[in-house]
Structure formats: C-alpha cells, structure tokens
Amino acid sequence: MSYLGENIRKLGFGLMRLPQTDGVIDVEQTKEMVDLFMDAGFTYFDTAWAYAGSEDAIRQALVERYPRESYQLATKNAAWINCKTKEEAYAQFDTSLKQTGAGYFDFYLLHNLGEARTEYFDKFDMWNWVAEKKAAGLIKHVGFSFHSTPEELEAILKEHPEMEFVQLQINYADWENPAIQSRGCYEVARKYGKPVIIMEPVKGGMLATPPESVVKVLKDAEPESSVASWAVRFAANLEGVITVLSGMSNIEQMKDNLSYMKDFNELNDAQLQTLKQAQEELNKIPLIPCTTCNYCAKVCPMQIGISGSFTAMNYLTLYGDKDMAVHQENWLVGGHGLKRVNECVKCGKCEEACPQHIQIRAELERVSENLLK
Ligand code: SF4
Ligand code: SF4
C-alpha cells in the first residue's frame, strides 16, 4: 500500500544540533553539509520554531541557494512554550515563514504533543487553525510530533483523523523502554495507517558513543561500520517510515550517514540479532536518558544547566572519573552562563516539558550529591 512520503529517501537532515562556533550556528559549515546531503539525493529538512537560530540558518544554507521544489522543509509549532494566548501561538507560524523564507512548508507539525502540552493545542484550537493554513496552501501536510504513551497517541489519532503523519522517538535503546515506549507508539501509528517520521534515532548522540560493552558488540559484528550507523539503520529498517531524522552537527557525521544511507538495504537476521545484544548491554547501565533537547531550559525560571549536569553525571556513571565529570559540569553549566543545580527551586516546570519523562528534580539532587560536594 502506498503512503505519504514513501518516495522521500530514508535519511532526513535534523536541524536541531547544527554546528556552532562560539555558541553561534556556523552557517558556512551548514552550507557544506546541505550541499553534501543534496548532492547525494536526499531532500528532507526538519527544523522548528523552538530550535534557536535553526530556521534562520536553513534559510541561508538551503532556501536561498536551492530551487524551492527541490527539497521538503518541515517546521513545528510549540504552543506550549510561553504562549498565553492563541494569537501568540499562531504567531509562531508567521515567524517561521519569515525566518525560513520558504513561502510554504511541506510538512508542518504541532510540536511535542503529549501530557499537559496537548492542552495548549486544544485550548487554542490549533487543529482547525492548521487546517486553514493547509487549505490556504501554506502547508502541504499536517502532523504532529509526540512524546508520551501509546494510549494517549491512540486517543489523539481517534479524535484527529485528519492528521496525515506522526513523528516519533524511535531508537533501539528506547524500543522497549517503559518510559518512552517506542514500539508501542509505532504500532499505534501503524494501526491508524499513519506514516511515521523518526526522530532521535541516535538518542541525542548517546548511541554514537555508547558504553564500551555496546561498542564491542557492534564492532565485533561489523568492524567497518560506525557505531552510530547501527542506530540509524535500525530506524530506517521499519515499515511505513517517511524518513529518519539525524541531527547532524558536523561534516564528518554527514559523510558517515550518507555513506551507509545512500544505498540502504534492509537489515538481515544476523544484524537484527546484533542489535538485540546491544540493547541488552545498554539495559545494564543506568544512564539518565537525557537527549539534550533543552526543552526544559526554555521553561526553567532559574536557568539551571539541566542537560549539561546530566551529561556530566552520565560521564561519571560510564567512566567513574569524578575529576573529569566535575570539569565537564563546570564547563557545560558555569562556562555557559547557566546556574548550578543547587539553585533549583523545585517548581517542576522542567518535568512537564521533558519528552523523556525524566524525574529531573530527583536527578538534579543526585548531580548535587555526586558532583558538587
Ligand atoms: S524544578 Fe528546578 S530545574 Fe526544574 S524548572 Fe524548576 S527551577 Fe528549573
Ligand atoms: S532533561 Fe529532558 S527536556 Fe531537558 S534536555 Fe534532557 S531530555 Fe530534554
């Protein structure tokens, strides 16, 4: 059966983690990455109003340099970020149009539905609003990204059959993870006939540098393949997938992704077995499942360096090197002008925004115990 986007190639360029120099997106390097991607025949780009500087960068690197019909551009509306009125939420669309200069969006997503965040889209009647934009030709396809339970996904799809696709977090680490339920959500989307766009296939980069025991499993099976390639291939192997978004941050990552996605073949039984072993090894290590999406940072009133603290804490868990972990925390938090975890006022706003359902306040206490004392 044919489905929306089946002709789009299975690697999409996620624009959430573009290369930076001194904290500013490196547009020249982004241009080179866009050129490599387009030259290899890939065409799908995924940005969002909420990704600071990303829409502006892709205007310069892509929109102003390539014919509009030669690529698909997706962006997203995050009505739950600091919007008090529907006008404020709707205004994100105009900002996105202006920042990208794209004229229209091939794919437009209601961003990060699930839990309390869904209420904003209901309250502001974003469902009808987005249908009007589509009717006006400003959006070609409407869908939503989602981070919550399969039950909640099913409820939304029942109520909104007009949604054309769903964007889900799927990777081999989260496939059976009870906090993410990748498999359950994927199966609900397929049950409702919705094609899926996959995000976080490399889990915010975590599966590019997994623990040594996982690297060993993957390298023993295919010494020549990069560790990250397993994560992207796992996602691309699923049926009904429009594309797999990889949030590439440099030219090297782009080249690596292109090398194995250019001629992607289905995974065979031995490869699937290898991934199963990797999953088992990963499950043995209690890492904080933070993907550094920084949605929490957008709502934290104290500007606590949450994701940087978690990166440092994971470093400690993985390598047991406290000096290095403290050094990392210093740089990722203090070095970036953010506040230390001991200034957290425990308001819980971050936990409402976190797509990974991390008990942030409790984990921050652990950071404080282990790295600040
Ligand atoms: S609980 Fe702490 S870290 Fe979370 S939003 Fe509130 S102040 Fe920020
Ligand atoms: S704690 Fe949650 S919201 Fe914050 S960066 Fe990590 S995954 Fe994203």
Automatic annotation (TrEMBL):
**What PROSITE patterns does the record point to?**
4FE4S_FER_1 (PS00198), 4FE4S_FER_2 (PS51379)
Q: Which residues form the 4Fe-4S ferredoxin-type domain?
A: 335-363
Keywords (A to Z) from UniProt: Iron, Iron-sulfur, Metal-binding
- Under the GO molecular function aspect, what terms does this record hold? iron-sulfur cluster binding; metal ion binding
Extract the Pfam families matched here: Aldo_ket_red, Fer4_9
- Reply yes or no: does the keyword Cell cycle apply: no
- Looking at the keywords, is Methyltransferase present? no
Could you tell me which InterPro entries the record lists for this protein?
A: 4Fe4S_Fe-S-bd, 4Fe4S_Fe_S_CS, AKR2_Oxidoreductase, NAD(P)_OxRdtase_dom_sf, NADP_OxRdtase_dom
Q: What is the official name of this protein in its record?
A: Fe-S oxidoreductase
Q: Which organism is it from?
A: Eubacterium ramulus
